[in-house]
Amino acid sequence: MSMxxxxxxQEKLITHIRGLEKAKIVQPGYGVQYDFLDPRQxxxxxxxRLVQRLFFAGQINGTTGYEEAAAQGxxxxxxxGLRVKGKPPFIVSRTEGYIGVLIDDxxxxxxxxxxxxxxxxxxxxMSLRPDNADSRLTFRGYTEAGCVSEERxxxxxxxNATLEEGIEAxxxxxxxxxxWAQLIPEATISxxxxxxxxALDVLQxxxxxxxxxxxxxxxxxxxxAEWRQLAQRLKIEVIYKQPxxxxxxxxxxxxxxxxxxxxxxxxxxxINASLSQEVREKLDSHRPQTVRS
Length: 293
Prior knowledge:
The chain is mainly α. Helices cover 49% and strands 1% of the residues. A two-stranded antiparallel sheet has the order 1-2.
């Protein structure tokens, strides 16, 4: 049981549970109290708006958990280095990674309780998967942040290029549904459809994987099936293809809003807009960096 009540109350509570009347607590549950700064005073690079070149990361921003602290530490560290070199900050969008969602939530909404990074907070979680993290962030980490080694960059580049090649190879193989049902009888492929199916479409079926297709078409597909990590990526990409394509328009809309920078000296009390006094005061207090914020 996880609780922070006084130890004597914890003991009384335990003994009131049927079967635990004589139980003894070896280690009472406990909590750690700590102060934190309002993260809304930070920019998306985790730099303080009040003191230039001062960056904050971890529990001081109102988060709890090792991963949350580590994620902020990476971004704050990268941006501190870039700041010293006079380079633009490295900002991860909420459409690019969980780190982006965490920092965006903290710096725009703040928090009234210890913040944890739950999957439910991420609008585009179908796109932000562990298997495609290299495709999303490794190249930016190499070119913009300088925190990715050349070896890892080359490995990610090779994976991306071969992944695209594999997708094109699968698209090029097309047959009727009847033919596919004959080639892969274990797959539940309906023969009622009149349109052609590509090998990429067939890979969506649960009973089909790259090894299955490579056995039938060894010449064009064997090299993709032999690279196990690539074969898994191809299968995952196909499974998520439909929901990801549906999210693409929403992702692009968010990115466009994030690209619209607001002037730092914008006078929210003087602009001609249908905004209440309360909203103007909040905007003036929080000073959002972009329209999305």
